[in-house]
Amino acid sequence: MSPQFLITEFGQRKRGECNMARYTGPKNRLARREGMDLGLKTIGSHAHAELLKRLAILPGQHGVKGRRKTSGYGIQLREKQKVKRIYGTLERQFRKIFEQAKKWKGNTGEKLIEFLESRLDNAIYRMNLAPTRTMARQLVSHRHVFVNGAIVNIPSYRIKANDVITMTSKALEIPAVKKLLEEKSPQLPAWIERKGPVAKIVRMPARADTLEDINEQLIVEFYSR
Predict the structure, then answer these.
(1) Residue 92: which residues within 8 A CB-CB, separation 6 or more?
(2) Is 188:129 a contact under the CB 8 Å cutoff?
(3) What's the CATH fold of domain 119-204?
(4) Which of 23, 28, 119, 163 has its CA 20 to 30 A from that of 34?
(5) Which pLDDT value is given to residue 161?
(6) R_g over Cα of the chain
(7) Which of 1-10, 136-145, 172-181 comes out lowest in average pLDDT?
(8) Homologous superfamily of the 72-117+213-225 domain (CATH)
């Protein structure tokens, strides 16, 4: 019996790969859909090199080499989807964070990005102790991360200034983590100080600390329609 397929925004996919909770198909397809490297593959890996070769080609059964003109709504939607995928959040989680950002005084879009940056899984990634946010999320979920001496296994846990974060000895033996720890001068954001596997949150992350190409105002406009 031939497999059933769905035609989705990722192209033709088997039904099993179109999980309603979280996309489980090829991660390079997500990056190609957004036309940018979303940080889903380890830099320097074969998979990352292959992504860079095909980044300009839209996903699909035969590959689409051109990008159609997109409406204002479509541009806003794509920006929202892109940021969700960068940080690895589901729609319900993302919308909840947006609603929390709306309640704060000041720029809602900037606060949205600051809240996303404050997630524990993102902090592990920014500490340069995981090559991708996906792996950082797994390390947290599998109880490998300590915050102030206590295990925290919730990836969305919001860090605070002066938090001290480290990982279990078992996690530090993971080859990908060991390789990162061996780097002489890791590139860390200004809000993190790290000595070996121990990091301290010296202040809360600000919008200006985020290096990814994000237009958060488009997301505000999308949810304000």
Answers:
(1) none
(2) no
(3) 3.10.290
(4) 119
(5) 98
(6) 18
(7) 1-10
(8) Ribosomal protein S4/S9, N-terminal domain (1.10.1050.10)
Tokens 């997500």 sit at which residue?
30
Per-residue model confidence as pLDDT tens digits over 33-67 = 555 556 655 555 555 555 555 555 666 545 555 55
DSSP the chain: -PPPEEEETTEEEEGGG--SSS--S-HHHHHHHHTS--S-S-TTSHHHHHHHHHTTSBPSSS-B-------HHHHHHHHHHHHHHHHT--HHHHHHHHHHHHTSSS-HHHHHHHHHHTBHHHHHHHTTSSSSHHHHHHHHHTT-EEETTEE---TTPBP-TT-EEEE-HHHHTSHHHHHHHT-SS----TTEEEETTEEEE-S---GGG--S---HHHHHHHHT-
Distance, in Å, from the CA atom of 97 to the CA atom of 116, rounded to the nearest integer, reads 8
- Quick one: tokens of 156? 């969305």
The full 3-state SS of 94-150, as one line of letters, equals: HHHHHHHHHCCCCCHHHHHHHHHHCEHHHHHHHCCCCCCHHHHHHHHHCCCEEECCE
Residue whose tokens read 């605070």:
160
Query: Can you give the pTM of this predicted structure?
Result: 0.74
CATH 1.10.1050.10: which residues of the chain? 72-117+213-225
Tell me the residue type at 20.
M
Residues 6+ apart with CB under 8 A from 7: 13
CATH 3.10.290.10 range(s) for the chain read 119-204
